[in-house]
Every structure is written in structure tokens, then in C-alpha cells.
Amino acid sequence: MSAERPKERLILLPTISDSRGILGFAQEGDHVPFAIKRMYYMYSIPTGATRGAHAHRACQRLLIALNGSVKVTIDDGHRRDLIKLTSPSAGLHIPAGLWIDLDDFSEGTILAALASHPYEESDYLRDYEAFLAYANENFQ
């Protein structure tokens, strides 16, 4: 029996503001709905560059635009949603089984990702047709 299709969600992250600036944070269990096993980040992204173009079989991610903005296209095999990340006070939870494309990076964007799994190449679906077959086989 196949599971229900995964759905991304935007998570508002807490901030503390005073005369010294703003402190933002995300805690496993409170704001991040998975155990954090890895953190990575992207920066110095050339104008017009695209990233992503893959899905994961098991790994979940929380994407946070620490600086600048990025357009995230999320594809579940039947429907595409577009979310623009523009603030470090929100994180986009990407469950396993969703294809993402990242583009339209503003100059100076720094995009951080918290991941539920260490890097493992076998977890990636990098071919879109293979992703569609996987999604149709595993999700209703």
C-alpha cells in the first residue's frame, strides 16, 4: 500500500530582537520536525544559476534563506508549488519524496539546510523520470 504524498510546509522560526540586533534559532523537536544529522549551506551563487534538481528517498530538509532570497519549486509528481524564501525567520520543511528546484537567487543569498541524514548518494533521485516512477509507486 502506498503512503500519502508528502507536503512541504513553511515553519516560522522564533526570533529575539533587541538593540543589539536579532537572534534567530531553530531547535530540533521544537521547530525542526526531525533529528538533525547534517547542516550545509550555499553562497556565492552566480546570477542565473540553478541548484537542487533532485529528490531524496529518506532525507528531510529544512531550508532557511539566511541572507537574500531564493525561489523553491516543489514537485510531488502530480503538482508543483512555488515558495520564495526571503527571510531567516522562516524555514521550508521539505519531506522526503519531493523534487525541488532552486533558482532566482538574489545577489548575496546564503541558503542553509538542516538535514535528517548524513550525505549518502544512494538516497538521491537525480533523474526526473526516475523520480516520477518512484513517486507514483510510493505515494497515492
UniProtKB/TrEMBL annotation:
Pfam families: FdtA (PF05523)
SUPFAM superfamilies recorded: RmlC-like cupins
Domain of life of the organism encoding this protein: Bacteria
Domain Sugar 3,4-ketoisomerase QdtA cupin: 9-135
Coiled coil: none
Database matches in InterPro entries: QdtA_cupin_dom, RmlC-like_jellyroll, RmlC_Cupin_sf
Protein name, per record: dTDP-4-dehydrorhamnose 3,5-epimerase-like enzyme
Source organism of this protein record: Pseudorhizobium tarimense
